[in-house]
Specification:
- Helix 1 runs parallel beside helix 12 and helix 3 crosses helix 10.
- It contains 18 helices and two strands.
- The protein has a two-stranded antiparallel ribbon.
- The chain is mainly α.
- Bound molecules: phenylalanine.
- The site of phenylalanine has 15 residues, from helix 1, helix 2, helix 10 and helix 14.
């Protein structure tokens, strides 16, 4: 088979690819979402299940996405269409790509709103607004920020412009440049904050909470949330990693690359927990405070600690950087698709998709103010988009993608692309994508729907 070449250029090295995928993986999911959903679902037991899903489903699924992406060398929709046709004679597999592109647009629409809060909080922290503030004052600050649609909308707009600016510049000059600067900065900030947290917070309470499982706290819904989050945090099930895989040089080893990304993402999620929970417990705050956890508890905690202005500012800067490198991954599949299949120049495609995401994001902006009265069984519009994408679209996407790699693609194609022979490791991977991942996903779904 003649090898195709990417139309968007390539990562300059395997390291650049690892940085980019890790940048996409490490985001609001690790720092904002993981701590609060762990808090809502019972701490240690949830964490354990999450780790099992990350390694049993996330890792093989990540390898599957990279290999499919590199084989197709196009945006996820076209990639699934051509690889699907080569393997099975059908182009219809492209629907999986369309599902993924849509999930990316929908996720980014609310993601950008939260990222906008993070941007706004950099300035609030730097101005010392949290210093010696009471819980009521900090809570009020959060509610009045999200409740003020103009402020929320303004920051959402700024964040989308930042994302567009990077993505419009293309793979090497935009995406790669951004992660080369932002990822080391992110790691440095995290380590600085960790030292601060260990010194100023209740570290042993945090470790206990995170690592001592209490299984009676775990519900079936918790299991679905853990699965959804394992996929969300690794940017899986929507084609982000597949799109990035299309730009991976031919000779890079996919298995070791995926292992590196999964370990880095998990380590950063745990580190973020070890930064946040000591501060939360040190101040006697509630770990199950929901989406406002880091925007309400942390400012309160920072506000009453020495050096809180500096470290609070660093924290929200960290959060914004993390969100930025993830937003790039969320939008890339749609941008590449418009560019490759509809002939839009890359910058134009980025503006069009960015504008679309911005517009859909209005629903999330307004769900805290003008439209707060509109609810679905999952809560406000904001919560509904989050629930629908993380807990339905991503598991469905991951089911389809692992199934595609395991059942539609033949052994020769996948082992050829993975370049790890056909020994034990390859077979383990294949068992995971053929059986374990799809069956686990279906099982959790069926359970959740109450059919079992
Ligand atoms: N992984 C990102 C996070 O944890 C979110 C994301 C999902 C990014 C899907 C890209 C694609 O915040």
């Amino acid at each position: 088979m003649e090898k195709r070449t990417s139309l968007q250029g390539f990562w300059s090295s395997r390291l650049a690819f690892i940085l980019a995928v890790t940048g996409s993986a490490v985001g609001l999911g690790n720092i904002w979402k993981f701590p609060y959903i762990m808090g809502e679902n019972g701490g240690g037991a949830f964490m354990l299940l999450y780790l099992v899903f990350v390694f049993l489903i996330g890792l093989p699924a990540m390898m599957a996405e990279i290999l499919i992406g590199r084989r197709g060398r196009r945006n996820p929709v076209t990639t699934l269409e051509i690889v699907g046709e080569e393997e099975s004679g059908h182009k219809r597999w492209r629907v999986i790509g369309i599902l993924g592109v849509s999930a990316g647009v929908l996720i980014l629409s609310y993601y950008s709103v939260v990222a906008g809060w993070a941007l706004a909080y950099i300035f609030k922290a730097a101005q010392g607004l949290f210093t010696a503030a009471s819980a009521d004052v900090v809570g009020e600050l959060f509610n009045s920020h999200t409740g003020n649609w103009k402020a929320s909308l303004g920051w959402h707009t700024v964040f989308m412009l930042m994302t567009i600016m990077v993505v419009a510049r293309g793979v090497e000059r935009g995406l790669e440049q951004a992660v080369r600067i932002l990822m080391p900065a992110l790691l440095l900030m995290l380590l600085v904050l960790l030292v601060y947290s260990v010194k100023n917070g209740d570290f042993s309470a945090a470790v206990n909470y995170m690592f001592a499982p209490n299984f009676s706290d775990l519900t079936l819904n918790g299991a679905l949330v853990a699965l959804g989050h394992a996929l969300f945090t690794l940017s899986l099930g929507m084609g982000a990693v597949m799109a990035y895989g299309a730009y991976l040089p031919e000779d890079s080893n996919i298995g070791t690359t995926a292992v590196a990304v999964v370990i880095a993402d998990t380590a950063i999620a745990l580190l973020a927990g070890l930064v946040i929970f000591p501060v939360v417990f040190g101040q006697g705050l509630d770990a199950a405070a929901g989406p406002g956890l880091i925007f309400q508890s942390l400012p309160l905690a920072f506000g009453s600690m020495k050096g809180g202005v500096v470290f609070g500012t660093i924290f929200f800067l960290l959060l914004s950087f993390a969100a930025w490198t993830s937003a790039i991954g969320l939008i890339e599949p749609a941008v590449a698709w418009m560019n490759e299949s509809f002939g839009f120049k890359r910058p134009v495609a980025t503006f069009v998709i960015g504008g679309l995401v911005w517009a859909v994001g209005l629903l999330s902006v307004f769900s805290f103010n003008l439209l707060s009265h509109i609810t679905t069984p999952f809560g406000t519009l904001f919560k509904t988009v989050d629930f629908f994408t993380s807990n339905i679209m991503l598991p469905l996407g991951a089911f389809a993608i692992t199934g595609f790699a395991g059942w539609v693609m033949c052994r020769n194609s996948t082992s050829d692309e993975l370049k790890m022979g056909t020994g034990l490791r390859y077979n383990l991977w294949r068992i995971c994508v053929r059986y374990i991942a799809p069956i686990a996903i279906v099982f959790i779904f069926i359970n959740k729907l109450g059919l079992l």
